[in-house]
């Protein structure tokens, strides 16, 4: 049974999962080391209060968060990750649904995110949840390893 709740991304067990995510992405997209740094940090995600963790048997299994952008009606989905042992169980869909509800509660009308072509399962999750391709946004760069998606709420 999974439990989904807002949590602090700096909590030790959550931070360990996020470190796995960083390693996973660096292995999958080594050329992204040249990308500009994100304007948000785990401290700012914690302060914004929209970082969700799915736990199974008390252990973090998946996560995702919202980061504010210059336009308060638009938020960016960040740090979406499902640990390999829990993939295919619908956790990503659950987190997206909850993030969309949180975005609406914060007054947002649009959600944006960046994924990559080497993540076909993730791209299928986003497509099935109504996310459509768009151009680069904010600090991100147009690059063959970037796929930008958007959903109007």
UniProtKB/TrEMBL annotation:
<dbReference type="InterPro" id="IPR000182">
    <property type="entry name" value="GNAT_dom"/>
</dbReference>
<dbReference type="InterPro" id="IPR016181">
    <property type="entry name" value="Acyl_CoA_acyltransferase"/>
</dbReference>
<keyword id="KW-0808">Transferase</keyword>
<protein>
    <submittedName>
        <fullName>GNAT family N-acetyltransferase</fullName>
    </submittedName>
</protein>
<dbReference type="InterPro" id="IPR050832">
    <property type="entry name" value="Bact_Acetyltransf"/>
</dbReference>
<dbReference type="Pfam" id="PF00583">
    <property type="entry name" value="Acetyltransf_1"/>
</dbReference>
<keyword id="KW-0012">Acyltransferase</keyword>
<feature type="domain" description="N-acetyltransferase">
    <location>
        <begin position="12"/>
        <end position="153"/>
    </location>
</feature>
């Amino acid at each position: 049974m999974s439990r989904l709740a807002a949590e602090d991304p700096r909590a030790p067990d959550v931070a360990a999962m996020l470190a796995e995510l960083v390693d996973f992405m660096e292995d999958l997209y080594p050329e992204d080391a040249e990308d500009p740094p994100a304007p948000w940090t785990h401290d700012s995600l914690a302060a914004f209060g929209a970082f969700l963790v799915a736990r199974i048997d008390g252990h973090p299994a998946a996560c995702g968060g919202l980061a504010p952008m210059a336009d308060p009606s638009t938020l960016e989905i960040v740090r979406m990750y499902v640990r390999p042992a829990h993939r295919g169980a619908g956790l990503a869909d659950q987190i997206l649904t909850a993030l969309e509800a949180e975005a609406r509660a914060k007054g947002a009308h649009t959600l944006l995110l960046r994924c990559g072509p080497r993540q076909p399962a993730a791209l299928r999750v986003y497509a099935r949840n109504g996310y459509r391709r768009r151009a680069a946004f904010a600090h991100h760069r147009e690059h063959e390893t970037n796929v930008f998606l958007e959903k109007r709420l």
